[in-house]
Amino acid sequence: MYVQESTILMKVALVLAQVLTFYNLLIWIKIIMSWFSPFSNLNRSPVVQFLNKIVDPYLNLFRNAKALKTQTIDFTPLLAFALISIIQSIFNLYGTTGSITLNVVLALIISTLWSYLISPFFIILIALIGIRLFLCFKRGPNSINLIRAIERIIGGFLNWIQKVFFFSKIVSDRTLLIVSTIFSIFSYIVVKQFITYLISYLVNL
């Protein structure tokens, strides 16, 4: 009797995981359509209105995460994706193995947060600093606007680097950006190694 109930629960878990996969796809469709809505009448489409009704209530749960917002970029959907991925992974794990432990759940949470939030944050940060550094050496007609846009995003981080490494002394943009690049890459490597070790430790408990 217990085996039959366990088998049923495993099948239900796998079905729920598939439902979350489909819901994840709907969120992606909604986000991609929102990119084009300012240039078209997509918002009036019945399909878009339907997506808004089933996707927006979930996405709105994360709108108040101010730490994931800048003046130009909203990273809160990544948190929404991360939560779905965590729950989906738990369902998949239970659906395939029939058991789950706290340490494995913690490993899944940490792994998902790294994949959906921490790693993308580092990659975007390093890319923006790299572009800003490139513009120090080679500027074009539209460079000023691009520099301003980038500094609206990473200005706070650059100010922090200046305070920590140069004690708020005035240094050239190139020096500040080179140090910021080295620090960001080093931090990315250290954090990645630590998280890899932590996940391995939790799984093998």
Write the layout of secondary structure elements.
Blueprint: H1 2-36, H2 46-59, H3 76-97, H4 102-137, H5 143-166, H6 173-203
Fraction of helical residues: over 70%
Order of helices and strands: HHHHHH
Gyration radius, in Å: 22 Å
Number of domains: 1
Which outline best applies?
flat
Round the mean pLDDT to the nearest integer and report it. Answer: 88
**Sheet with the most strands?**
none
Given helix and strand content, the structural type is mainly alpha
Total count of helical runs of at least 4 residues: 6
Number of strands: 0
Poorly predicted runs = none
**Strand percentage:** under 5%
Terminal Cα span? 30 Å
Which features does this protein show?
single chain; 205 residues; mainly alpha; 6 helices; 79% helix
Summarize the structure.
The chain has one domain (2-203).
Could you please describe the fold and organization of this structure?
By secondary structure, the chain is mostly helical. The chain has one domain (2-203). It is built from six helices and no strands. It has helices at residues 2-36, 46-59, 76-97, 102-137, 143-166, 173-203. Helix 4 (102-137) runs antiparallel to helix 6. It is flat. It starts with a helix and ends with a helix. The model has no long low-confidence stretch (mean pLDDT 88).
